[in-house]
Design a protein that fits this description.
This protein has helices spanning 6-27, 36-52, 56-73, 79-102, 111-120, 128-131, 150-172, 176-193, 197-215, 222-239, 244-247, 250-262, 268-277, 286-294, 304-327, 334-352, 356-370, 379-401, 406-413, 417-452, 461-477, 481-498, 506-529, 539-549; strands at 2-3, 104-105. It has 550 residues and is mainly alpha-helical. It has 4 domains: 2-126, Four Helix Bundle (Hemerythrin (Met), subunit A), CATH 1.20.120; 150-290, no CATH class; 304-415, Four Helix Bundle (Hemerythrin (Met), subunit A) (Up-down Bundle); 427-549, Up-down Bundle (Four Helix Bundle (Hemerythrin (Met), subunit A)). It has a two-stranded antiparallel ribbon. The longest helix has 36 residues, at 417-452. The protein is flat, with a radius of gyration of 29 Å.
Length: 550
């Protein structure tokens, strides 16, 4: 990061804010009325000050604004692009305050806004590595690549299948931790099949970046999602034995290296990889960048998740009040007034969540309580409210379990209270069964890992079989036919390896077997929260098992 002269910034802060405010006002006018020459004058003045104070992030952003205004003077800038510029300017006072407070700057603070302006001009997006000026280590890039044999091509193909499965859900924003695990398994599988040191190190970088995403050390910013998509194209090129410039494009290698640096490199594997590559940590991380942005970027109203937490807390408060009423433990009309206020507040929160039926019901309760003169609720009203709270419990439990689209939330509005509650009871029971199956899968994955690490030997076959028997029972109960078939085949393979005359020793099946197990885990974990999750992801498991059965 760059050090800022906070004293000098303090002296001119008032004038800076005034100039920024004037520019925002100019851009608030209709596009055809904007004085572009006046805007450019103001931007040039601001940019000069930022340059003088070495506020590199702000200077770069203002430069992108100027480029955008050049386009505007040619008459080819639409209202949306002008709004993008205005939004960026509106962030500047907060950005300047953050610099004044902490005395450190980086262009990465403003990368999303820089890329939004470039997108408005249809210019290529910038990546993190392009803004780490002078901080990128000189790590040898892969400039040539050996022809891959059949074994490596097969590993690449399986890796790509697993990676694609996970990437699809990462891009949707759903089940990201599980999806990242599947992607990482594919990359690990590929890495183990390679012999070239540079290639092994590169895929170790990718693996560690995925681990950082899983841990939350890296966020799912647009630039990072673009890099993840580029890796999928890279795997396709590798499987075709394409030349290095296609299989290992330098920008992608640099991007993965930058993400590795920004992750903090603080895990055991990362420390070893950094030592192998001769890389030293940066004096800041992606988390530092996110925290800095949080100080000046308005994130809008409460997030959906935060609203659900508020709703859950209000439900508990109401339940306590109703319990008091049932026990006739309260005196005066305070609990009654509190219940009315809480139901009104709940109604408002539910409206923002798009839950119209629940909103309407809470609003009716608030009005009904408000019209009561007595300090005690009639038993009939208490029962109705208790039903509402049970209904809300079911909704909140479902919505907190996984991300829901607007259309899915709209579907909840079409269900009656009885349907929602009954469905939640059934779903909860199914989740418990699936959770039990997943715990046995975790045991299986640990056993296979122990075998690969040389911690245990062929005696693992028996506990592997026992765990698969438990999973088979669970998926059978739930009627998950395809998963049941995959599990039964896994069990058959293990049992076959235990036979004295077997030509299929455990050592020969573990690697391929792990791919099938990861695919099965991915399906069951997603099925736990989404009853409509397609079982097509089990195709990878079935394909792996076919190799062992043939």
């Amino acid at each position: 990061m760059y050090q800022i002269n906070t004293q000098a910034l303090k002296l001119i802060r008032e004038e800076l804010d005034k100039e920024i405010g004037l520019l925002v006002d100019l851009l608030a006018q209709p596009v055809e009325s904007v004085d572009w020459s006046e805007c450019n004058r103001g931007l040039s003045q601001l940019r000069g000050v930022f340059s003088l104070l070495e506020m590199v992030g702000g200077e770069m952003l203002l430069g992108e604004m100027q480029e955008t205004f050049i386009k505007a003077e040619g008459g080819s800038l639409d209202a949306a692009a002008v709004n993008t510029v205005r939004h960026s300017l509106e962030l500047m006072p907060g950005y300047v305050s953050q610099l004044q407070m902490h005395g450190k700057d980086s262009p990465l603070f403003l990368l999303p806004e820089i890329n939004q302006l470039r997108a408005a001009r249809k210019q290529p997006q910038l990546n993190e590595y392009q803004l780490l000026n002078g901080l990128m280590p000189d790590v040898p890039m892969i400039c040539s690549v050996a022809h891959k044999d059949h074994h490596s091509i097969e590993a690449i193909r399986v890796a790509r299948q697993l990676y694609q499965q996970g990437l699809a859900h990462v891009l949707k924003g759903s089940t990201r931790p599980t999806a990242i695990k599947v992607m990482a398994h594919g990359i690990q599988r590929l890495r183990n099949s390679l012999s070239d040191e540079k290639e092994v190190n590169y895929w170790a970088l990718v693996f560690d970046v995925l681990g950082a995403l899983y841990r939350g050390a890296l966020g799912f910013e647009q630039s990072r999602l673009r890099s993840l998509m580029a890796v999928e194209r890279q795997l396709r090129m590798l499987s075709d034995n394409a030349p290095a410039e296609q299989s290992y494009p330098i920008p992608l290698q640099q991007s993965m290296l930058a993400n590795f640096l920004l992750s903090g490199m603080n895990t055991g594997g990362a420390v070893k990889l950094a030592a192998r590559l001769g890389i030293s940590p940066l004096n800041f991380t992606a988390a530092d960048i996110r925290n800095a942005r949080a100080m000046f970027v308005e994130e809008g109203n409460q997030s959906f998740v935060e609203r659900l937490a508020v709703i859950a807390a209000q439900i508990e408060q109401l339940r306590s009040l109703l319990d008091d009423q049932m026990a006739q433990a309260s005196t005066g009309n305070r609990p009654l007034k509190e219940a009315a206020v809480l139901f009104a507040s709940l109604s408002e929160e539910l409206k923002y969540c798009g839950l119209g039926l629940a909103e309407e019901r809470c609003s009716q309760h608030a009005l009904a309580i408000g019209g009561l003169m007595d300090s005690t609720l009639p038993s009939g009203i208490i029962e109705e409210m208790a039903d509402t709270l049970l209904y809300l419990d079911s909704i909140i439990m479902e919505l907190q379990s996984r991300p829901h689209s607007e259309s899915e939330r709209a579907q909840i509005n079409t269900l009656s209270i009885k349907e929602v509650v009954e469905e939640n009871i059934i779903s909860h029971a199914q989740r418990r069964v699936l959770q039990e199956a997943l715990s046995h899968l975790a045991s299986i994955m640990q056993l296979t890992s122990d075998y690969c690490d040389g911690i245990a030997g062929d005696e693992l076959a028996k506990p592997l079989a026992d765990n698969f028997k438990m999973i088979l029972g669970a998926v059978g109960i739930l009627g998950l036919t395809r998963a049941e078939n995959v599990t039964a085949r896994c069990l058959d393979i293990i049992n076959h390896s235990l036979e004295p005359a077997s030509q299929l020793p455990l050592s020969s099946i573990v690697e391929v077997f792990a791919d099938a197990v990861v695919s099965l885990e991915y399906y069951l974990d997603n099925r736990r929260w989404n009853s409509n999750f397609e079982d097509t992801v089990l195709g990878v498991a079935e394909e792996c098992l076919e190799k062992l059965e043939s």
